[in-house]
C-alpha cells in the first residue's frame, strides 16, 4: 500500500480531503514501483518552498550487523526518477492513458516542428503510428496547440505548435 505524507491529487483519491496537509509546505509519497516490487519511490506531492520537483528511488535491503543482528537498511539510487506521484500511484488503465498521451505529445512535437498541418493530415499520420482520438486531443490541449479554421465552404482546421514552442 502507498504511504501518503501529503496532499495532492494522488492523496485526494485515497483520503478525500486536503485537510491533512493544507498547512504543510512540502509533502511526499512513498510507493512501490509497478515494474519492480522491490523498488520504492520517494516522490514530491506538494512543494511550494522550492523548485525541486524530482523524486528519488530506493530499495530496502537485508543486512547483518557485526553483532550478528539481522536488520534492514535503505539503499538509495544515485539518479533522480522521472515519474510523478500521480503516475506512480495510478492504476494500469490510467498509466496506459498517460503513456498514450505522452506518445501523442511527442508525435505532435515532431509532426509540427516544421510548421502547421491540416487536422486531416495530422489524423492520417497519427493513425499510421497507432495514435487515435482522445490521447491526441488531450496532448493538443496540454501542449496548447494553435487550432485555426481556414476557409468557409470547404473549410478545414490547421494545427500548429504555439509560438513559444517553435
**Low-pLDDT windows of residues:** 1-8
Q: Measured on Cα atoms, how large is the radius of gyration?
A: 22 Å
Domain tally: 2
Q: How helix-rich are the residues, as a percent range?
A: 25-40%
- How many E-type strands? 8
| Strand order in the largest sheet | 1-2-3-4-5
Query: Would you tell me the overall average pLDDT?
Result: 83
Structural class: alpha+beta
Largest sheet: 5 strands, antiparallel
Q: What is the number of helices?
A: 5
Beta-strand level of the residues, as a percent range?
A: 25-35%
Shape: elongated
Distance between the termini: 43 Å
Describe this structure in words.
The protein is of the alpha+beta class and 166 residues long. The protein contains five helices and eight strands; from the N terminus they run E-H-E-E-E-E-H-H-E-H-H-E-E. The protein has helices at 9-15, 85-88, 92-112, 119-128, 133-142, and strands at 3-5, 26-33, 36-47, 56-64, 70-76, 117-118, 146-150, 156-160. Helix 3 crosses helix 5.
Amino acid at each position: 500500500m502507498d504511504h501518503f505524507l501529503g496532499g495532492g491529487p494522488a492523496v485526494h483519491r485515497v483520503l478525500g480531503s486536503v485537510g491533512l496537509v493544507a498547512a504543510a509546505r512540502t509533502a511526499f509519497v512513498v510507493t512501490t514501483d509497478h515494474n519492480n516490487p522491490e523498488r520504492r519511490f520517494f516522490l514530491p506531492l506538494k512543494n511550494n518552498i522550492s523548485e525541486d520537483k524530482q523524486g528519488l528511488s530506493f530499495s530496502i535491503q537485508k543486512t547483518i550487523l557485526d553483532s550478528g543482528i539481522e536488520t534492514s537498511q535503505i539503499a538509495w539510487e544515485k539518479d533522480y526518477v522521472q515519474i510523478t506521484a500521480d503516475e506512480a500511484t495510478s492504476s494500469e488503465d490510467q498509466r496506459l492513458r498517460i503513456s498514450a498521451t505522452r506518445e501523442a505529445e511527442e508525435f505532435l512535437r515532431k509532426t509540427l516542428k516544421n510548421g502547421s498541418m491540416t487536422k486531416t493530415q495530422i489524423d492520417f499520420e497519427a493513425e499510421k503510428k497507432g495514435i487515435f482520438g482522445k490521447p491526441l486531443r488531450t496532448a493538443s490541449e496540454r501542449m496548447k496547440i494553435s487550432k485555426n479554421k481556414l476557409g468557409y465552404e470547404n473549410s478545414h482546421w490547421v494545427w500548429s505548435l504555439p509560438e513559444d514552442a517553435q
